[in-house]
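Q: What would this chain look like folded?
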Amino acid sequence: MSESQNVLPQLGITTGDPAGVGPEISLLAAREKSLQGLCRLVLFGSWEILQSRAAGAGLPFQFEKISIETLTEGRPLPAVSIVDIPAGDIRAGAGSKASGEAAAQNILACASACLKSRLDGMVTAPISKKYLQEAGYLFPGHTEFLAHLAGVSEIAMAFLTDRLKVVLATIHISLHDVVHTLTAEQVYRALRIILTEFPRFGLPCGRVAVAGLNPHAGESGIMGTEEEEIIKPAIDRARTAFPRAAIEGPFPADTLFWRAQNGEFDVVLAMYHDQGLAPIKVIGFGESVNVTLGLPFIRTSVDHGTAFEIAGKGIARHDSMNSAIRWALRLAQERKIRSQESGVRR
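A: My prediction, written as structure tokens:
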């Protein structure tokens, strides 16, 4: 994007599984007054489905339909627009192989535009992992799908609020597999991603806390040896590689997140999915945002699922989508500033 066209950041919003609440929360966010004048929003999804959902919710439908070609031409975009990606016969609340295919097509189109630098970031509404896989996209979730499309192997899931920031050492695998597959290399890679990606986005990471895997962080081997055999060696290696950062742990997880949200640490590395997500959602549900670290473009996401049971009923809240958009704008701005500073130093 040229400088003149980059006055307002341009964000793509994938509207998620069209049988879920994704279309509704995307439409609500697109008309959010507090976001007007801050960015240009491009929704990726079925024009027909989005128009129908807007009518069902009593929302005005004031969008401009644009094509993928419009994005690739690099012209300035309207304030709110839709890239029409036709979908099959999909009803609100009824997830299916067809809705999984539609969700995947939205992701493919938006990711392609981001990889070509036609958008400043990507904000994703929720998808169903079940129906994504039924449609033939055999990924555990957005994170792994986007890593595949971007051709990157080292990624991490981060969850951000103003008070607490958490990164996961493992992502969408069972607890059984966490215990049997966690390695020192894996923990070290997650620490390395934190300490290289957070500065790119202007996020503090001078004080990193690492959670233990077992109760009481193993209690010196009484309740498990992973802390001594896996986590501590990874911490030692990271301290050597990043001597300016204070990397502490492993700490018992039962008190660590309370300490972090009270300001003792900048970010916590959790060992597995629910260890990190339970506290962040208790502290900031609707406010917390999922960010994929390691991609060549910015990707943020809501912190909830498809909510098929309330889709199309006009009661879905869009707080988390608003937060995801605001974080995408914040991260895009910070990355631009640091890129410019890097260019000046060179």
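The first strand starts at residue 10 and ends at 14.
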